[in-house]
Amino acid sequence: MADILTPALGESVAEASIAKWTKKVGDAVKKDEVLVELETDKVSLEVVAPADGVLSAINAGEGDTVVPGTVLGAVTEGGAAAASPPAAPAAAAPAAAPAASGGAAVDIAVPTMGESVAEGSIGTWLKKSGDTVAKDELLVEIETDKVAVEVSAPAAGVLTITAADGATVTPGQVIGSVAASGAAAAAAPAPAAAPANTGSAQAPASAHLSPAVQRVVSENNLNPAALSASGPKGNITKADAIAAIGAAAPTAPAAAAPAAPRADQPREERVKMTRLRQTIARRLKESQNTAAQLTTFNEVDMTNVMALRAQYKEAFEKRHGVKLGFMSFFTKAVVQALHEIPAVNAEIDGTDIIYKNHYDIGIAVGTDKGLVVPVLRDADVLSLAGIEKGIGALGKAARDGALTMDQMQGGTFTITNGGTYGSLMSTPILNAPQSGILGMHNIVQRPMAINGEVKIRPMMYLALSYDHRIVDGKEAVTFLVRIKELLEDPARALLDL
């Protein structure tokens, strides 16, 4: 028998919550198959099967709080029991309809959300009162400041909602009910009786959608029943939903319909902040309240960097398989400036100052859930191509929600690029406990005085926010000027000048 253990969560993370088990006791599992998802206040972690066999025990249910090393369950090695479970549902199916036809209502209760979580908020109901639902169909998510807990239908039948969107609820509270009906129960076995398709199966209308898939489906107005499902047990994966978007794209252009009269709408709409957004707001404010934050500005002429990039971008991409962007130049300049001004690469711990001799650069990435800052490790030993590949991989993982705890912590300095959104100037907030953050901005053609002549140059404003408790004004200005020099004359970096 092999134990399923909670993995290490990171130095600053002491606990996690069980988000979802993908198997139940008695199911056959394969080694390295994902069995359970853990949620922390930063990332999601997957725990896989330690061996081939049968899931023989689940010790921690969904919503329970666990710590590293906790035994979540066990796998009994050997797959002899794998053949018997599939036959039981088929034999029990004919009896399902009479049992459900009695019309008894089954309560929908808020699940346990962890020992340290006392309440949550109702998200958006995916069904409305009076709708027919299938057993285990996802109905609503309950948001906490750490995780989102899925609530599924406990039975097939007609839904009645008693807790509205945005309502604050506690574990065990009844938020609705499902009245079982003969019509609903009779319809449930139909998808199972359909002949199996080769390749990707067509997803049933009642297919369980994970939060990530549900978001893609909702934002792109996709019909879950029309999607091909390639996931285990006929579930729709995020890749299935994204593929459906791509397939539908060519048919998108159509004759513009006449504009409908503008509907009457309220002048204001009050929406409760998600728990995750509340956490982001609290941490940013704590950063402002803790550090003595100050911002200094400069501007950089991007002429030479842009010319170098234009000259070599095609050869660079052909040689390294990645596009040459501006972030690699800025990262190189930042690392060299940090070498020269070590206070900007330090942090305060009580009455001590910790000077870092490693250069792990945080790269701020905007996602649909909020701002995250994955870390590019050992940027000082990476080439321009290595930096571009590392940043690209971190950005993709951030947008896909696939960042790990290790990728999110331990940064020594942060770069944020508001220029991608058109920002001309900003005062970035420190990513605590770091003592510096560099803000990049939009490149704008402006008239500049060059050797007594007015010339049009591509200019970018730079902003360095720093912790004045560690970094003096002279050091901050020198740091920013050094970055300006390295970017305006890229040969300095090659010659170590």
User: What distance separates the N and C termini?
Assistant: 62 Å
Q: What share of residues is helical?
A: 25-40%
Number of helices: 12
Q: Low-confidence parts lasting 5 or more residues at pLDDT below 50?
A: 80-102, 182-200
| Cα-atom radius of gyration | 27 Å
Task: Characterize the main sheet.
Answer: 7 strands, mixed
Number of strands: 29
What is the 3D shape?
globular
Mean model confidence by pLDDT = 80
Structural class: alpha+beta
Strand content: 25-35%
3D architecture notes:
It is a single chain. Strands 19, 22, 25, 26, 27, 28 and 29 form a seven-stranded mixed β-sheet that branches. Strand 12 and strand 13 form a beta hairpin. The chain has twelve helices and 29 strands. Residues about 80-100 and about 180-200 have low confidence and may be disordered. It is of the alpha+beta class and about 500 residues long. The longest helix has 18 residues, at about 305-320.
Topology:
Layout: E1 2-5, E2 16-21, E3 28-29, E4 34-39, E5 44-48, E6 53-58, E7 65-66, E8 71-77, H1 87-100, E9 105-109, E10 120-122, E11 132-133, E12 138-143, E13 148-152, E14 157-161, E15 168-169, E16 174-179, H2 182-187, H3 190-193, E17 201-202, H4 211-219, E18 228-229, H5 238-248, H6 275-290, E19 293-301, H7 303-320, H8 326-340, E20 346-349, E21 352-355, E22 361-363, E23 365-367, E24 370-372, E25 375-376, H9 384-399, H10 405-408, E26 413-417, E27 436-440, E28 443-450, E29 453-467, H11 473-488, H12 491-495
Parallel strand pairs: 22-26, 26-27
Antiparallel strand pairs: 1-8, 2-4, 2-7, 3-6, 4-5, 6-8, 9-16, 10-12, 10-15, 11-14, 12-13, 14-16, 17-18, 19-29, 20-21, 22-25, 23-24, 27-29, 28-29
